[in-house]
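Running low. Any example?
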Amino acid sequence: MQRVSKTWGQVHALRDVSLELRKGQVLGLLGHNGAGKSTTMKLILGLIRPSSGELKVFDHDPSAVESSHLRLKLGYLPENVSFYDQLSGEEVLTYFARLKGIERRQVALLLERVGLAHAVKRRVGTYSKGMRQRLGLAQALIGEPRLLLLDEPTVGLDPMATRDFYGMIDELRAKGVSVVLCSHVLPGVERHIDRAAILGQGQLLASGSIDELRDMAGLPLMVRGRIDGTRDALEQRLSQSGVALTRLNGNAFELAAPAGGKLDVLRNLLQSPDLTDIELDPPNLETLYAHFDGQSRKQETLQ
């Protein structure tokens, strides 16, 4: 995707967005409602055409008539899954398998894989929200797609099912499957993605690995520790580096080490003979998202 824009009349859904996804990579597509995530997915699926820019999926234009075969390589899980309530889980998946020209024997394997083997004959109308979500995931996996597009895939899943889902994503990535993953539950996403793309108001605010985003943001490293004795000497040494130590309960403390001087701060801490514990908390994906989104909103206010 190179400098892709999509407009609906006067509404700019996407503005000059460039993204690249390689084989076996998981891309976290992040953004608030209306940021452009769903539009991006629809463009990749070929459901809509870009207003400008170039978009290729497996080296083909996904919206072209001659690229209909691409859909056999794609799997899609929408945010709000909807199936015929009167059909059983097995019947629903068999229907989608027939649409893709996939053998029916895959159905039972997929239902077992997503934890629905006990409910294959039950009507979908009796399924819980989490069970419907699992059925939607099974539908997306029909035909062993090479690219998966997952929109809020863990909505309605309990913690154990969420863990199993991300385990499945890790397995697919190891097999060379590429994944675009939209999620608002950022703490669970971070360790399962290779790169993140943060959208805001249809624009790409930041893109890269977690480490690259940390370098771009320049946010401080939060350090928490415990010292057995007075903290006066440590406070004095740190103040010379422009770092303020905040006292917590008991002998605990915390401080924010600037991105460019965190090694100096850590050396100062380790020189203290009374230091009994230390914990490092680098900016996580949730913090990084809030930073870039906040910067974008601030710029909008100033304009």
About this structure: The chain has two domains: 2-214, 220-282. The two ends are 28 Å apart (CA to CA). The longest helix spans residues 285-302. The mean pLDDT is 88.
